[in-house]
Amino acid sequence: AEMGRTLVELFYDVVSPYSWLGFEVLCRYQHIWNIDLRLRPAFLGGIMQATGNKPPAMLPKRGEYMLKDIKRMAKYYQVPVKISEGDFQRIFGTSTLGAMRFITAMDMTQPGYLEPLSREFWIRFWSQREDISQPENILAVARQAGLSSELTQKLLEMISSPAVKNRLRETTEEAIKYGAFGMPAVVAHFNGEPHLFFGSDRLELLGSVIGE
Q1: Whole domain around residue 141: which residue ranges?
Q2: Residues recognised as catalytic
Q3: Does residue 1 belong to any structural domain of this protein?
């Protein structure tokens, strides 16, 4: 982090609608608060498995609440998340491993593109309700984010490389080491120690802790 700036790491997976909400708010506030925002693509499936967590919608009452909550949050934060009951099955049936490896490859190649690329994955999956698990859909997302076909091809080739697989695994393990059990997991490095905040509804608290 630059002198005097608080490093804030956002661990996220594009399968998570709450991660999209947290991402958009932090992307807005990186220009208002004295923070250095670092986007950390990780794999939610790995975090759930390692910590024994279950998707919130597995509990029907919580699923019902989540539908209302995400609609309210989307309206409040003005992020075009669309959610309906059928989406829970859709999420369980979709693996974002390829997408998160693609985003990780971008992080290793041109991290400046992480923000628009990640946003396009969320828009496709959570606003347009389209699949993001197939290579041709990943290609469409990359085009939408303004990537050249050369760069896209390079990133697609990197997806299956040990370097990318290891990097995604290491980032996921790092989130777990900080205490993450779900996403978004936001880690603020303040006064020489990491402070973990879970979810997109703890950002006022994050601001308060770092003196914003």
Answers
A1: 6-210
A2: 16
A3: no
